[in-house]
């Protein structure tokens, strides 16, 4: 048996580095990661530690016993007759009229004027239909008219097949 130049604990530590080899262990064997091998079933010392056995991955689930009851609760307060002024929509028509009377014609001045005055729609006028949306005639169309179909467009849209199928269905 060859003489051992290292202590027994050094040899046991080096078993993970060079298993089955006895002899001289250099200091670089413990510092260079390329020379180190993990022992079977053990994590390397430079990697993340193992999680404890009772560790649970993910977020904790906070269950509430009365969650459904909270969802099915309706507000019990009755709304008062007066509404909050900030809840009402801005009255841009009045802002435009008043800014013209004040001699304001440029946009930055108009923005400052609208912020300073803060005209809101009167709730009674709102109820009387001042915010009534205009209705458009049925024959009125918006946007550009559709382009007429081309032979290539019909080919890409399988229009010829659809037309032939309809003709074949009608002739049967």
Shape: extended
Number of distinct beta strands: 0
- Low-confidence region ranges: none
Radius of gyration: 41 Å
Our measurement of the CA-to-CA distance between the termini, rounded to an integer number of angstroms, reads 102 Å
User: Could you describe the largest sheet, including whether it forms a barrel?
Assistant: none
Question: Which bin fits the share of residues in helices?
Answer: 25-40%
Report the total helices. 8
N-to-C SSE series? Answer: HHHHHHHH
The whole-number mean of residue pLDDT values reads 75
In percent, how much strand structure appears in the residues? under 5%
- Output the structural class: mainly alpha
